């Protein structure tokens, strides 16, 4: 044997990671305040800076007409603004406002508080085990995402 993991092992790890991501996103999300797509879009604009609407739609995997409507709602709410592209005045770029940054920060704080409350309810042994697992898993997952050509994501705002 060459020590390579079996397809079953890979499938088990992939299924477990998928379940953890889905459980966390669902539990920590506050969809009454903002949809996951809206939060993800706003976080991307914050992370990547001014961006063309077409590029934003592609990056978020949303049809351009849907992204146009979403950006219009975000503009009405004062969370984003459009500005002229300094390289091509015919093109508008979407940029986050200070209000938008504040909303993302509040969402992150609320998500952190909810998660800290959940963790506090665990027995110390389980908290330590989970902490150890996360300290091991997080750098590996970051490397996987980076190797796949994705920029390392900061807090994307989708969990609160």
Class inferred from helices and paired strands? mainly alpha
Taking the alpha carbons of the first and last residues, their distance comes to 45 Å
Q: What does the radius of gyration come to?
A: 19 Å
User: Which assembly state applies to the chains in this document?
Assistant: single chain
Helix tally equals 6
Strand order of the largest sheet: 1-3-2
Q: In percent, how much strand structure appears in the residues? A: 5-15%
H/E order of the elements?
HHEHHEEHH
Tally of strands = 3
Main pleated sheet: 3 strands, antiparallel
Helix content: 55-70%
* Morphology call: globular
Mean pLDDT: 87
Low-pLDDT runs: none
Q: Summarize this, please?
A:
This protein is mainly alpha-helical and 160 residues long. Helices cover 64% and strands 11% of the residues.
Task: Write up what this structure looks like.
Helices cover 64% and strands 11% of the residues. With 160 residues, the chain is mostly helical. It has a three-stranded antiparallel sheet. Helix 3 crosses helix 4. The protein is globular and about 55 Å long.
List the keywords.
single chain; mainly alpha; 6 helices; 3 strands
